Amino acid sequence: MIKFNNIVESIPILARTLLIILFGYATSSKFLDFSNFQIQLGQSPILTAYAGWVSWGIPIVELLIVAFLSFPKYVYHAFFASYSLMIMFTTYIIIILNFSDFIPCSCGGVLEKLSWTEHMLLNVLFIAIAILGIVFTTNKNHKTKKLL
């Protein structure tokens, strides 16, 4: 019989694993086709002026998140960073879909094969995964108030 505590304890582990796979894959695909990634960012109506910085910044942040997710001491904060980055990606997609005539995709690998709807659903799924990681991870440095 599966115990409830075992399920609850496995949620952050599963969330960490899925986020590591997502960001690890995304980072490696960006670096493997870096010149194309930079060109696509340069075509973005929002990011054109910052394409150089953003093209290095995004994969570096993704790598840092993967590293922090790999160490239990930093997992709690890495879940917040994952959540924040996914919110930023989702916000960018919403803005670009609603206010731009040209919609470049700067995602790499399999992710660039997704439709924008599928991409949004994937982002929402990973936002939910990051939230589950936050909720089910206890941070020894983070004091929580009891509601009752």
From TrEMBL:
Signal peptide: none annotated. One of its GO terms (cellular component) is membrane. Residues 11-135 form the Methylamine utilisation protein MauE domain. It is found in: Membrane. Keywords: Membrane, Transmembrane, Transmembrane helix. The chain crosses the membrane at residues 7-26, 46-71, 78-100, 120-138. It holds the Pfam family MauE. GO terms for biological process: methylamine metabolic process. InterPro entries: Methylamine_util_MauE. It is a multi-pass membrane protein. This is Methylamine utilisation protein MauE domain-containing protein.
